[in-house]
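Lab notebook, bench 4. Still working through the backlog of constructs that have no structural model yet. Next entry is a single chain of 538 residues. Request: give me the structure tokens for it.
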Amino acid sequence: MSAQLRLALAQFDFPVGAVAANTTKIRELMTRAHAGGADLAVFPELAISGYPPEDLLVRPSFLEACNEAIAALAQGTDGLSALVGFPHSEGEVYNAAALLREGRIECVAHKQALPNYGVFDDKRYFRPGHATATGMVNGVRVGFLVCEDIWEPEPAAQAARAGAELIVVVNASPWDDAKQATREALLTARAKETGCAIVYLNLVGGQDEVVYDGASLLVNGDGSVAARAPAFVDALLWATFDPASRTLAADDWPVAADTRPEATLYAALVRGIRDYIDKNGFPGVLLGLSGGIDSALTLALAVDALGAERVTAVMLPTRYTSKLSLDGAREQAERLGVAYHVIDIEPTCQSFLAALAPAFAGKGADTTEENLQSRTRGVMLMGLSNKHNHLLLATGNKSEMAVGYATLYGDMCGAYAPLKDVYKTVVYRLSRWRNEAGPAIPPAVIDRPPSAELRENQTDQDSLPPYDVLDAILQRFIEGEQSQAEIAAAGFDLETVRRVARLVLRNEFKRRQAAPGPRVTTRAFGRERRYPITSGWK
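Model written out:
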């Protein structure tokens, strides 16, 4: 009878391109795993290089550094087996995981299923593997798969046919609001198909426009879930596999305090902000605080991600800025303890209008004058960003970006947009959820009608359908890829649907110039949803 297998699962962040730092972290974690009695230490997909390394993979020097790193790690495996993800270059480049043991690379698993949808571009960089690798670890036959391999039946079936009792899958699977339920259903199906227990280890951390949640899983051979790791938590997770019963047991895993969807989404946004700012070496951030709900939620997220001492809020009023906005912004800045400035931009706007007056002669006032206010704010905020070396956060949400209700070089100014993939109705839900932990956002800001305040008595609903209607249409059109006829058949006014669809299609040019932001839905603008700017399709 096989002995029990003790595993140490490294649910950590391994930043892209940080080969030396990642190697050092892996070595330190291997030492911890060995000291804790682990038979097998497991590290995420491409832990050496970080995921996704993109065109770093076409640089020979980068690939050489990764190969040298995995060879060096192999030399430190006395008494421990370790499965480490890395880009394997041997003429062709493979997305691989190496089993390190007794000072050498014992075997290498090549990723067989290369995803090329959504945010993934594996086929651009890698060649596919052709067989599932297995190995004996402390008397247990283990199959080794890389991420997408588990999403197709054949790689796991190969492991089972080779006699595997346990399948270990290393992953860099980005989070979205539907991902975890899909993962669990998939892993349950694979375990039942093969009879193998499954260890699913996932990367954690923010990388440009994606966030990885960790949320690693243990699934027994009968398909039941043995343990769930919390999302967005860095941890060395200990587990034990019993080959006799093909069951797994977690050893004192951390537990999420709040598993509601709002809690997980909020954690994703916080992690995205923190990692983007810290990995790019910025000392802090600033944002325009308008007295509206989008900038209020962005401020709360920034403070929770970075600490109040690294966040600056700026109110930039004009004649149209209400007392409610002024009071709400100041109240929130004081509650959260951030540096706060008020810069009156009315004189600057008037000077721009005076300079443009001869060229505007004979033209009536329109949205040009409204946009000029927004662009004046952008100029001021970018000046502060340059002077203080603080990255500017854009505060727009997905609903606005979808229909182009945003001003290029105005409120779209910023290097990172935390709410870019968050619909307006979800902004409200998150704001109310955040206030449960303390009054971060003044209730008056949440309850007020949304307004850009670029003219007298303006509200968003002057230009847009109510947000509950707008977001429902957008979700069907964007995430669901439904036709206008299908959306109308679901009970929506046809003319409203047509208007919303036109706005989405004709504002692609704006979205191409928008700041990156964390992907948190199943169809994010930018890296994932890529429509042509110039198109005759309506």
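Notes after review: The two ends are 65 Å apart (CA to CA). Residues 16 and 50 are 4 Å apart (CA to CA). Flag for follow-up if needed.
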